[in-house]
Structure formats: C-alpha cells, structure tokens
Description:
Radius of gyration: 18 Å
Oligomer: single chain
Largest sheet: 9 strands, antiparallel
Distance between the termini: 38 Å
Number of helices: 5
Number of strands: 11
Bound molecules: copper (II) ion
Structural class: alpha+beta
Number of domains: 1
Amino acid sequence: MNRTILPLVGLAAFGLPLALPAVASAQSTGGDVNYQATLDPVATNMVNGSGTATVTLSGNEATISVTANQLLDSAPHAQHIHIAGSGECPKADAAHDHNGHKAISTADGLPAYGKIGTSLTTTGDTSPNSALAVDRFPSTGAFHYTRTITVTPDVAQQIRANNAVIVVHGIDYNHNGKYDNVLGASELDAKLPQEATAPAICGALKAMPVGGAGTGDGATQATGSPNTADLLATGLGGAAVAALAGTLLLRRRAASKQ
Ligand SMILES: [Cu+2]
C-alpha cells in the first residue's frame, strides 16, 4: 500500500499562487448542463490506462463521476478538477528529463491543465487543501467514483468556460507494480517518488449538447457575480494550510533556477 509515501503535500501548493482569478462569469444557465471528458494516458508517462468523467453542473452543485481502468493497483490515485490553464492535457513536448527519463510531472503539466480547483476526494473536504489527502482518494487500479459536491464559483465558471480538466495521478513508469524512484523524487516533496504524483490519465471537460438552452424563465440559480470577498474567503480558506508548503516549494524552484 505504501501509504507513507502518499502525503503528496506539495501538490496543494499549486492551488495557492493562482487561486484567485477574479473573473466572474457573466453568463447564466437555464438549467443543468452536462460535461464529459475522455481520460487518455498522459503522453510519455508509460500509462496504459484510460477512463471517462462526467460532471453535471447546476449552479455550483456538481455531480461528478470518474471511471478509471488499468492504473496501478493497490496505490492511491489523487484526482482533481484542474482549472485556469489552457484547458487541455499536456502533450509530449511538455515532458522533461526526470532521472534520465522523459516524463511529464505534475508541474510539467500545469501550463496545460492549470492549477487544482477541486480535489475529488471520496469523503470530506474537496478544496485544493485536500489535493494530497491520499487516504481519501481511490486506491485501486480500476475504480468508479461518483460524488455530488459544491464547487467554488471559480471552478463552476471554469467548467462552463470549457477550461476545466480532469486529472488522475499516480503512474508506474517502469511497470514494476509500485511507486518507486525510477523518475527520481517528486518536485512536490522530495520524500515522495515522482511516480506517485505524476499525472496518469487526463481529459478536458466539454459541454454536451442537451437539446437547447433552458427555457429561461423561473431561473432558480444564484447567478450573481461573486464578489472579491467571497472569492478570497473560499480561495484562501481551503488553501491556507498549504501556504507554508507553497512558499517552500516556490523558494526551492526559484533556487533551482539560479
Ligand atoms: Cu491533479
């Protein structure tokens, strides 16, 4: 199970620096909208798995399903809705050298899929603060996950803007049945194998045609623009614990560039 290697604490740091896109969606919706993603193996990461994801969004309430197959068994798989990147999965040219192997780490993929907006945990908190709550993520190689949660306004806005990406993490690059250090240590936490945090399967959520927009009258959703205070409250509340880790990570990365 190797649960000790799973406190992917550093991942949460990515929720902080860009956590407050003060962009309020001006569009309102006439009702539930369905979004779907096909989860394909992340390029270069030696993943054979695949999956699908669906999100039904009503206001800020999201019913999320993720089905995954052929991932590393008996190993935790952190999974998130990533937002505010380019709304796509990283391509092979995003790979870097990791201990002599071309692979895409979680950090390598950030420009494509963006920061963590929602942690798709099985229970409890779903904020970026739970990005690496490995005891609350699926831990089998094939799983079906479903949960109805309230997402933050920025996550809902990004889903509606077709700029949200589902990512399931945890790869077995050298196919030896466990997370090891073939790719070196995770840049998120030197105590963790890169394999434990690297993205495995990924797919951009896209709105599905649902027979036209809602009738428009009798809207029940609160579609007012979230004010800055609300964004600060939701954004910082969940991520506060990650602040220290984020600071350390940024320092480490800054130092490594000198
Ligand atoms: Cu993620």
